[in-house]
Design brief:
Layout: E1 6-12, E2 15-22, E3 29-32, H1 41-45, H2 48-54, E4 58-62, H3 78-88, E5 95-99, H4 103-113, E6 119-123, H5 128-135, E7 142-147, H6 156-164, E8 168-173, H7 180-183, H8 185-201
């Protein structure tokens, strides 16, 4: 099966912003962010884009400001970048996948605009201690995926995030590090796809 992935640019807060896009516009959407030193291309290389698209999802892999082919933002806020991006693409209740550095975008976003999301996937994300007290109000179904051998953000942060978010459950990838999706891509992709399917069936069970 050949999947046609398009490379696109839009202007967000005055900066040229690049993203990969595949799937039908009306299909349930999955937005893939990325960590430091990466771009949206990492999800194509790991097969995540193709896998989700083959199951009927529209998949969008965004290059965050100053990464990949996107320009650096000179004005505006990180959370509003996502609001503007969703608005430009007319995305209706997407699932947001946010590893590592992109927690700096996604956690403030979900606190201010959680109603815009159908689901949230936090992957070894930054900012947990800072935002945990406020996250108790978030009702978005959330999957937390963490590498057991993360030496940058300890697995205890996954426990804290799970306790903070009332509609969440946690999966630990054994023997995987901070970039757990690189260490165990097949396992990561399997858990992500199962989560997406559970949202469609409304069978997501927290804890």
């Amino acid at each position: 099966m050949t999947i046609d992935i398009s490379s696109n640019y839009i202007a967000i807060q005055g900066a040229k912003t690049h993203y990969l896009d595949v799937g039908q516009v009306a299909a349930p959407s999955v937005i893939l962010l990325h960590g430091a030193s990466f771009s949206g291309q990492i999800w194509r290389e790991l097969g995540t884009v193709e896998l989700c698209a083959s199951q009927g999802y529209r998949v969008i892999a965004l290059d965050l400001p100053g990464c990949g082919k996107s320009e650096i933002l000179s004005t505006g806020s990180l959370q509003e970048l996502l609001v503007d991006f969703f608005t430009h693409l007319q995305l209706n209740s997407p699932v947001l996948v946010a590893p590592s550095l992109s927690g700096g975008y996604s956690l403030p976003f979900i606190l201010a605009h959680g109603e815009m999301l159908r689901g949230f996937v936090a992957v070894n994300t930054v900012g947990v201690s800072r935002f945990a007290p406020q996250l108790k109000q978030v009702e978005v179904p959330t999957l937390i995926i963490w590498g057991s051998q993360d030496r940058i953000i300890s697995v205890e942060q996954a426990d804290l995030l799970t306790q903070a978010m009332p509609n969440s459950r946690k999966i630990i990838l054994e023997n995987a590090g901070h970039n757990c999706y690189l260490d165990a891509p097949e396992e990561f992709n399997k858990h992500l796809l199962n989560f997406l399917k559970s949202l469609g069936r409304r069978e997501f069970n927290c804890r």
